[in-house]
Structures are given as C-alpha cells and as structure tokens.
Amino acid sequence: MFKLETTEVWNAEFFSHFVNLKNELHKNIKNFLSEDIEDYAKFFKEDSPFHKSFKWRGFLVYKNNQVMAKAVLCWKEGDTQGNLGFLDWRNDLDAAKFLRDEVFRFAREISLSSLKTPIDINFFINFRVRLPTKNGPLYGEPTYPDYYCKMFEDLEFDVVGKWDVFQIRKWNTIVNFRKQRKKNESSGLKHFGEIKLRPINIKEWDRELEILYRLFHESYKVMADFEPLTYPQFKLLFDKFKYIANPLYSYIAELDGHPVGFGINYPDPQNVLKSIHGKKLGIFGKALALLRLRLNFGDFIIAHVGRIPGPNGEEIKGLQAKISKRLTQRAFFMRRAFTIQKSDALSKRAWDKENYKTYAQYVLYGKNLK
Asked: Rounded to whole angstroms, how far apart are CA atoms 251 and 326?
C-alpha cells in the first residue's frame, strides 16, 4: 500500500518532494513563507557547514505515487538519542504510522534508544510544535497545521517538554519595573549599576556575531536540549539577524569592558518579509525593505536573552533587571510585546502574574525505543 524512499546523501530531486509537500500543507498558515530547495541544501549538501557534524537519513512515504509524509532523522556518532525533524504528513494516520514504524525500525538498527521530535537537526534551527490556538503566529514560531498535534498523540509520542509564549501587559510591567529599579538601586544589588548596555553595532556585524556566538554557547549550554554549533554553523543560522534585529532593541551587556550578556529583540518582521519573499530586489528595493524593518512598530518579540559569568568568574546579578528596564522603555511604542519561557522555568515563577498572560504554548515530543 505504501512505498518508502530513503537517502543518506544529498539528492535534489528527493528534497524537491520535501519542498512541495511542505508548501502544500502549510500554505494556509498565516504568514507562512514558502520553501525552496536551498532551505534543505544549506544543511544537507556536501559543502554545508553542517555536513560533517551529524549523520542523517531522509524518509519519503508514497501512496499511489503521491507523497504522503516526509522526515529526516539526525544523530551524532556515539549518541543514543536521535532528532526527528523536517517532519510533515498529510492528515492520514495510516501513512503517519508507516513513517513512524520505518523511522523506529531504522533507529533501533543504529542503536538509538530514544527520539525527540520535531527537531530539525539541532534545537538552534527549529524545534517544538505550537499547540492549536486562534492567536496568530509570531515570527520564528514552530507552527504546523492543527492536526499535527493530534497525530503525534495518536502515534503514541510522549510530551517531553512544554513552553509558554507570554503577552506582556506593558503598563503593568512598566510600573513594576520602575518599582523594581528603585528596589534594586536601594538594595545595592550587585552589578546593577556597573553593567553597561550597548547597542549591537550593525556596521561591525561580523565582530559582534563572534561575540554573540560565545555568549550564546556559554549561556545556553545548561539547557537540557542544548547542542553545540561551530561558528560557521552559527553564522549560517543567525547572519539574517543583521537585518531583523534593530540595534535600538538589541544589546550586548558588558562589565568592566567584558561581554557578560546579551538581548536579541525585534519587532515582528513577518509583514515585511511576506511582502518581499521570493522577489528579486534591486538596490532601491533592498534599501526600502531595510527601512521598513527599522521603522517597524508592530508586535515586539523578546527573542534571545542570556548571561555568562563575569571576567573573574563571578555570577552577574542585576543583568536581567537592567535589560528588562531598557526593553520596557523601548517597547512602550510597540503594539504588543511577547516573550517565551519554559513552562517550569524559575524565571517564569519570578514574574508577577498580573504582568503577563499566556498567548500560545509549544510542546516537544519524544519516544523511548527500548
């Protein structure tokens, strides 16, 4: 009934079926940006900076010559956990079961004991799935057709992680941070007055990106699903933030001249990106698009925030308060503001509940193969 095709080497024709299925199934999702073959070539071709970092196998499931499901299983030599990503399936449970069974069979053959999904290679690239909601998706959210979550449940995957997207109530938060600022200053919170925030210098982007690479890795390595990247890999993924991250809202925090933290934040660029996606822009068109991104006052996304120990190995205290104070000043003119937290995160429990409301939720699925 079903036919399986697999590959472990780059094959443009094979991945063209990935492109077509993804674009067909996701076309009705608001602000979905259609894919092309380069969205896969940059990860799986032999000249990709990711090429030698992991092993992989791509899966295509057919029924009567129609592509029904697709996925790529990635793993590292010697690891026992695999990441199942680039996953799409039609609303056909039998086809999804066939894909699952073939992936599980192969995973056991190569001695993997567990899988997490959806993770596209690495958690820095794309992972988790957004639970169905009437609220529109934000830029970068892992949004799939609504039936996908039900399919994961019917396929007996377990929920192994949960995250919340919070809409911040700006007025409450501004008042709260003013109170917190006075409290921090009067209590002598160590480092609060010594931390300097400087905007990211877009003109020196390559140098700034190298600093951010170190800060990202040092601050995120304590996360449960963290997987390291090389600098070329990091650059491939985050070079686009040169245009998306507005320097008015993105900072590097320094203590005694040493970078100790960062905040990468931006107004949601979806409307601008949607209007130029797939178009060949000239110099004027590119300049106009960049101007629109810089003058964007839509929804504000607090995307990436982290910190590392100080120059003498000391814990930096007061950084979150410092960055939050600056962001609330800047975000005042935005329509809405959002941030993402793991559902059981300590930083979430530290918030006053009247300052936020849940806007969306994500989950990560997993399966023990033993």
From this structure: 10
